[in-house]
User: Fold these one by one.
Assistant:
Number 1:
Amino acid sequence: MKIALDAMGGDFAPQAAVAGAVLAAQRLAGKAQVVLIGTEAEVRPLLQQYGPAAAALELVFSTQVIEMGEHPAKAFQQKQDSSIAVGYRMLHSGEIDAFCSAGNTGAMLVGAMFTVRPVAGVLRPAIANFVPKLAGGYGILVDAGANADCKPEMLEQFGELGSLYAQYVLGIARPKVGLMSLGEEEGKGSAVTQAAHQLFKVNPHVHFIGNIEGRDLFNDKADVIVCDGFVGNVMLKMAESMYDIMVQRNLNDEFFEKVNYETIGGSPILGINDNAIIGHGVSTPLAICNMLMQGYQMAHSGIVDQIKDSFKS
Amino acid sequence: MKIALDAMGGDFAPQAAVAGAVLAAQRLAGKAQVVLIGTEAEVRPLLQQYGPAAAALELVFSTQVIEMGEHPAKAFQQKQDSSIAVGYRMLHSGEIDAFCSAGNTGAMLVGAMFTVRPVAGVLRPAIANFVPKLAGGYGILVDAGANADCKPEMLEQFGELGSLYAQYVLGIARPKVGLMSLGEEEGKGSAVTQAAHQLFKVNPHVHFIGNIEGRDLFNDKADVIVCDGFVGNVMLKMAESMYDIMVQRNLNDEFFEKVNYETIGGSPILGINDNAIIGHGVSTPLAICNMLMQGYQMAHSGIVDQIKDSFKS
């Protein structure tokens, strides 16, 4: 099994990416091969720092880099030899089993949509994000930001995708699916969430527990939190900022430490034909390593086949 | 000046309401008269506990109560002698200058819409909520939950209403208005927020600073945070739950203490012809007292006249 990393992605690339890949290669030794995709002139000198530990990495050299600020679709099309474009081609051809990048999020989504493509039957792929639970373990929030405007049927599918992920990757037997709204009552919500609520009620594939509220993100009510990408993005950025404020104010706590993106690693793209994970721009080596571990878990679980199976009409 | 309280509203009413009213009457002595509206048989015995302090309160007796779980519109119509309906009639007739209740939120909105009515030119009144800022003071978030589905023009007006409130009640000279979105760039957002962004850009009445993100709720970027009621409600409930988790985990902090609803008091309804404030269902006496103080500040500032003036076309 091969888990690949975009060595050029992230605010601290390639240093942080290479360091994270070396860490992950140690942890995955005997289970999976870590593949590093990047510019030879930048990656090779860095690897020398790690001596024999770096020898475990497989290297693939690309010549271009999609920068963080570039227009995603344009850059992806014009830079066919960028680390992201090369990674997606290898993923699509089956040379690698998962592709991770802390680089340009938009370009990662473009590659997901146009190189790897959505699973047949999936209306719109979504980004999933892990949410630590007070009772222990993690829940999953879908969508974390890929789709700002959603139709009720999209929200329904986010619930199905999240439920499959919770089951096959997180190992939750019968994941509770909650629909984010502004009140628990069925009649509360926007026009879209109210319609989605009705779809969920008769959906035999998910264990729908009804509406949940902003206060239920971290509690035990739902394992799968369904919302549009606008709401999901706002919530996650807000949680992250509250964690940052706590750190600044010297409030140390085991639970809130799990809200830190570093512990979580990255955000898988669900509903596409292969395993792709997007990392946080400011990813440290630890975050990169955890993202690669996630990539391994996803690939190992066979989640994509489960999704394909489930969406076969 | 008369500031009235629904003695029957809130999960701990009438006890907490009466206790809060007594507190507020002491603080407002010489400035404003606190009026208590409620059921005589329930309110009178409670007042005896407070001895002479209770004598400062003006009493208005109503015979009915709208319960927390009741259907707002139906209950408001059928219970014409409920404390909420009586309060709104007194507000509309000018007998009182502000009306506060920690009772049924929906019924408070019904009274606002049908007894007091929206200011001419305002498309939809909104609920405002105060947000503590890391740099000190408070910002204001509009809408906190009255309108789940918004048109771009509504968001634009929320910015105008919030800006007037920040200016005339919070005393912020040139309030910075930020539009909540999932990215800072102009092109980021939902179809509605993208259109609202364009309206704000050419609006001469507000100091628009562009898109803000979930991470900007507590920082100094914007004094007025504009979002639809769905997003606002989710954010505020999430902030509240994170505060609750911190309390449970013995994390004490001066800044996060300000996120506590108790300190804030209540949420004014903006864009109606009088001063009405909705309190949290679980309001304690301190929260009730702070809500009444807010009611006084609103009435004293003449904010409603400012809004009427500003929306006169």
Note: Residues 229-248 of chain A form the longest helix (20 residues).
Number 2:
Amino acid sequence: MVDIATRVYNHKWKVDTIVRSLIDTDFYKLLMCQSVFRNRPDTTVTFSLINRTKSIRLADLIDEGELREQLDHIRTLRLSRGESTFLRGNTFYGKRQMFRPDFMEWFEGLQLPPYHLEKHDGQYELTFEGKWPEVMMWEIPALAVLMELRSRAVLRAMGRFELQVLYARAMTKLWEKIETLRQIDGLKLADFGTRRRHSFLWQDWAVQALIEGMEGKFIGTSNCLIAMRREVEAIGTNAHELPMVYSALANSDAELAQAPYQVLADWHEEHDGNLRIILPDTYGTEGFLARAPEWLAKWTGIRIDSGDPATGAETAIRWWKARGEDPQDKLVIFSDGLDVAKIAELHAQFAGRVKVSFGWGTMLTNDFRGLAPNDGLAPFSLVCKAISANGRPTVKLSDNPNKAMGPADEIARYKRVFHVGEQAAMDVVV
Amino acid sequence: MVDIATRVYNHKWKVDTIVRSLIDTDFYKLLMCQSVFRNRPDTTVTFSLINRTKSIRLADLIDEGELREQLDHIRTLRLSRGESTFLRGNTFYGKRQMFRPDFMEWFEGLQLPPYHLEKHDGQYELTFEGKWPEVMMWEIPALAVLMELRSRAVLRAMGRFELQVLYARAMTKLWEKIETLRQIDGLKLADFGTRRRHSFLWQDWAVQALIEGMEGKFIGTSNCLIAMRREVEAIGTNAHELPMVYSALANSDAELAQAPYQVLADWHEEHDGNLRIILPDTYGTEGFLARAPEWLAKWTGIRIDSGDPATGAETAIRWWKARGEDPQDKLVIFSDGLDVAKIAELHAQFAGRVKVSFGWGTMLTNDFRGLAPNDGLAPFSLVCKAISANGRPTVKLSDNPNKAMGPADEIARYKRVFHVGEQAAMDVVV
């Protein structure tokens, strides 16, 4: 029996929308948004989309009208009653009412601010400007829309069975990864792949496959909507945008040097337990840890998001020991450039010495390498970053100079203030 | 939107039926049935299911109650009005009204006769007895039911995503075969996989994949129902049961020696063109061709179904030349033990010398080798054959002694009458 109503309903959509919910975003955006809403609500920021993979000419692949339709649709979204109830009522990391009533009230009224879109040299220049708590909520949906429109542009040329086999191959590939990973004793792994996903449905499939296939070693997803629908834990803490904006707002070198710690001081007031995770690499991990205040060593763990991950973890272990902490009580979350072999290698090196966890991103939700003609569906490196705050440019150094961003003179200043010396360059694949 | 009515409808089936139509069968069964209905309608035959792969203990895998439910359901099937219209109205091989009105009237009233089911030593003993035109229609549905119940028994232990990945792998495997085969210039290939299919839905998927993927090199399917639904040609001619039953009915060695030719004489009266295909191997190809009447060399082609296929085709080519026929005008259909490499090899050897066509069976519709734990879904060799006619045992020799069947003394007699000497034994995989 054909369900006529469903068919008619599906066909009356003027546009096949990609982002259909304000919580189809990373959970840590909500956590950070609440923190920003409380501590720096009136900061004016600009976020900008940056395609690091110049060879993929997004403006040639993706129709501007289609892109605008998708972005316009996101501006029509409002938090639904069920989503609000979920956020208000859920227990995250064992804590009830993680989201304060004043934040929830604000979130229920949120409409994403206007966007600015231009084409330059085969790329889209997509920027968002306005109050920080509003603008920051564009990051993940903007990335998801661009990623999925690029997928669709490539898929459009394929036949019906060619498409089915494409997904059959992608499923097989992911399942084989799961079959390998689940053999690792004591593994803990989360989905961090929202921002670089092939498509929403594919991320949703991947999460469900992990639930069935990982036999308890899958601990949750960063995607708030999928966490709600699939009844798994929403996972996440904080990201570089906090120290980047706090640092841009600093009025002197002395204030700048303290800015990253001020972020964590604000965070410390609000959160405990698994949410107290240090992200140390914004302006170099070594220096950040060396000059960190005493209380930071008491935090639950650290997230390693750039540079050589083993080096980063060893640095953290030495730091904890120097501060009189037992590394075995500490959590190390790896979240950069992971795939099966790297996860296995890092787990073998660090399990037992610290608590280890993995935030698996692009190679979980977008490993379509080798599956389409001319490798047209291979993932690429798209980011959406705060580039200025109250008119001042932001800077990111990270532990990999290839991930650095900001004006050259400001980068030089930050390197001086944060005592960052020579860094090992690593390819940024995705 | 969930379609409640569909869901309720699906759940009210007491049994998930495997065969849902009397034309979910090989087209040549219908052609042969019409011939039998006209020429030998009152012959009493016994058909029996034989599992050549003893290591697969079907009676341990498959619940007897479930098997009976499926077989009982088949006995409730009647030719539907649309199916009857399709058979009456369709053009097969360019010929209108291939099925005579008296046969269609009989077919519209057909109910399959009772079955007899016992268990012996881990195997089912499933037999059908009655009038030849009725009993012969059990062959394909009986095989399809046993094959699919075995698949289900193995699938039952698998999880939801494990299942999805199983089919993803099977699809990928088949699609890769299609990608290889479609590169062969001038290839012509048909689906002959009904009897050994993994499941009905899988065969239907395979046919659709061939339609899209083979770019015109796919010429049709032996499955009459799928041919109707997917609007492709129904393909088939005749099979061993005709000479086997005719031979069993022979009253003397002299009559026996003529029986296989009598089959084709009856066929010759009814059919021309692409339906005049010789199946020469029932009692040895060499002798059959050597003693064949002159008019047989005028037939359209030959089907090679046992023994070494290249040897069989070379034998046919020599025979045509000896009878003054040009092999380039003749069609050779290969239909035994085919997979991609063998198809490519035979095509390279014979294309241009004769017209070549392939009837691809088990490795098209049931290549689940290596896809389930303990290789539990690997295809196996199940047949359903006429074992007696009017109380006399049937005999098949074929060009491979491992495919021979019948009582030992009768086999010896047939070998003498048909001058069959030493034969090369070949493994029967499926």
Note: Chain A touches chain B through 21 residues (CB under 8 Å).
Number 3:
Amino acid sequence: MPAPADFLKFVDGNEEAFIQRLASAVEIPSISGDPVHREDVFRMASFLESQLQAYGVETKSVPLGSHELDGQKLQLPPAILGRIGNDKSKKTVLIYGHFDVQPAELSDGWTHPPFKLTRDESTGRLYGRGSSDDKGPILGWVNVLQAHHDLKIPLPVNLRFCFEGMEESGSEGLDEFILAEVKKGKDGWFDGVDCVCISDNYWLNTRTPCLTYGLRGLTYFKITVSGPGKDLHSGVFGRMVYEPMTDLIALMSKLVDSSGKILIPGVDEMVQEASEEERQIYEKLDYSIKDVEESAGGSIALSDDKATVLMGRMRSPSLSLHGIEGAFYGARQDRDPREGLREVQHPNVNPLVISYIESEFKKLGSKSKLVIEDLHGGKPWVEDYDHWSYAAAWRATEEIYKQTPDLTREGGSIPVTLTFAEALGVNVLLLPMGRGDDGAHSTNEKLDKSNYIEGTKLLGTYLYEVAEGTKGQ
Amino acid sequence: MPAPADFLKFVDGNEEAFIQRLASAVEIPSISGDPVHREDVFRMASFLESQLQAYGVETKSVPLGSHELDGQKLQLPPAILGRIGNDKSKKTVLIYGHFDVQPAELSDGWTHPPFKLTRDESTGRLYGRGSSDDKGPILGWVNVLQAHHDLKIPLPVNLRFCFEGMEESGSEGLDEFILAEVKKGKDGWFDGVDCVCISDNYWLNTRTPCLTYGLRGLTYFKITVSGPGKDLHSGVFGRMVYEPMTDLIALMSKLVDSSGKILIPGVDEMVQEASEEERQIYEKLDYSIKDVEESAGGSIALSDDKATVLMGRMRSPSLSLHGIEGAFYGARQDRDPREGLREVQHPNVNPLVISYIESEFKKLGSKSKLVIEDLHGGKPWVEDYDHWSYAAAWRATEEIYKQTPDLTREGGSIPVTLTFAEALGVNVLLLPMGRGDDGAHSTNEKLDKSNYIEGTKLLGTYLYEVAEGTKGQ
Ligand SMILES: [Zn+2]
Ligand SMILES: [Zn+2]
Ligand SMILES: [Zn+2]
Ligand SMILES: [Zn+2]
């Protein structure tokens, strides 16, 4: 069933207050990857918890232990759990989101201060780090709660919340917590959950809402090549010694070619070629080469064929070289590059990668030393979209946006998705709020005001559509 | 003729004062490559000028104009000129040195603060940025001046000084100044100069003094590959677009291999293979594979054959990859690597390098954009060591060190060397003060106290040996 008209009206009438809510959240620079900002992640957790409490949600702040970051021992930010409704005749929906953000500095090229929500009245864009990833969406849920609280309308489903503060840094501590809760059975926080809804990705383009049923995994490697005991002057040592930089560049050049083809034997082959039928799915998506070029800011698509480009993102493994640490004048001690491999369906790609790099390094015949580290990663995930939760989201999208949603798979990873799917044994839906050009993790991240407001309506409406059938239907 | 005993005694007796002089100079962080420290380079120029004046040298501070650095317009540090003696019956020696230094920060791995001269009493080492490159040597000349001034002994030759403050940053402005002075003929500052002596390099090892008669040139390129308009998330764009980082790594991997061989066709071939006779010169030098490994801090020599390794440094071209600017998470806008090519005798290698990189880039078939910049460089230089100035330095070395000097060529570049040789048409001698493990441009740069003190004696004695013949001999 559609959401009550009062709810939709409330959302439109409280636009300014909702934007102010997002502005308050963006002002807290909750960067999980920077020890300097760890306290801000805790502040952001408290902010979110108090918002939930204000609208009648029972909350719990769960410590997740400590970890080491940049040589410092730090407390992990807590998971913020929430519970509202316990009606056995209603379905129970678990909502996940994260309140940490990527780093951002004005000097990276931001047009506005990244931690001050800045409105562009002419375009309706709300600029700020975290506006789209993922503060906008989690506050969309808070907006839904406020509407029901203030209007004194009961929620159509029971809700459980699980918000974390380490998503941008490998979700440390969360998997263990979820698994431990599930082990508790009836006493666990997630007992009775019928489906999971995550709003932490984006439309494929800037026009068409989508439902997302697959994510690539990620494995992240760090390769260090070392040799001399200190920086060396190329005038004094050039062509006398093995230079780690030369070896490292040689290794990195053997991983992927300019066209995106992965050169590690067996990796591309792990994914079956698409059948003509599967290709049709990609042909039908509302997407064009112009879309990718607009969002990338350059005419740099790997192909002129839309389906090929979309399959590159959604179903093929990809390998990106993320840089080399340090800039210097000689043959420096350590080279510290990072390489990220996005993969589909084969979580055991890592040994293949490591043994390939080792064997290529041996071929160089260098006296440098090689260390390969397997850093944080995320598992790939594909969901069954022939499920009542997807059907509910489909109807809700048609009601709010008057458009048929695209059904997409995504290139990025949200590590917890598969954990929920496996540990809870329920369907997981990705229901994005933002657009394809929002620029998550990039400079000038934004959320369109219309996506924030209509998105809030969408999230609320989704709950009513989920409730349409009685429990178990 | 040997130097007077009084001079040698004065140097030994003033060891502490001389070290204090070096300490005062090291305390001025005269980093020419950093706009923040430009004022310190000017301070260092004044310090040096006042020292010269104190010992009777007529000086002149010559403005060299302005330039742009990191987007700022800056005044270039002045050249400090000096003149003492005008006796037509004496030879006239021109001394060159530089008072600017490389950057240094404690966090780079220095054991002591880099801009405080720190004595290790047990080893006799004097640690500090510029101690060996090139403040120690230029103050060695000041020590010689002080000795003659305080002892009231006339100098055996006429001296001219030319000290600059931009050597570590491409000697900007200096060539033009020298050429303009030479054009003035009789009125030019360098009129009447019979030979040039430069103390700005190092012994080949830690045991044997040397005279240096050749330097490799340097050409320095910056390659920028760009594509997208902003940082891109590898999860969203991986395998959809051409990634500049992939293209850049591919290009860099095609320049040099792990064994040091230059892959740009024609570059290695520009230098003739060594005859068996020339090979013998390298075999005879007091050098071992252990020396290179000790100074590099690792067992990383390219060969077990001493002559091969030495020829790699002294007569072969070498190509070092100096890094990639930036560390990041996505396919970033610009990649900004630097590549330095040390070459011998073929200053016209640049067009070859540029057209090779361009053609390799075309082969990639990428839609990224390539820009190659040819940054500062230095010309290669080889001198005739069968000259009275080298003979004088040879005798002076035997008198002070009781050792026969090595005759070496060097891997590094001192751009002004060739300018002096060509513009003045006189012999240029490189007479180093420091040892092969001093670590110029590296962390923990040092000068051994004995090199500073005996080196001061060597420079003074060299002047007496030059004076041995009457002018014109
Ligand atoms: Zn996110
Ligand atoms: Zn994110
Ligand atoms: Zn120098
Ligand atoms: Zn230097």
Note: Residues 217-271+316-376 of chain A form a domain with the Alpha-Beta Plaits fold (CATH 3.30.70.360).
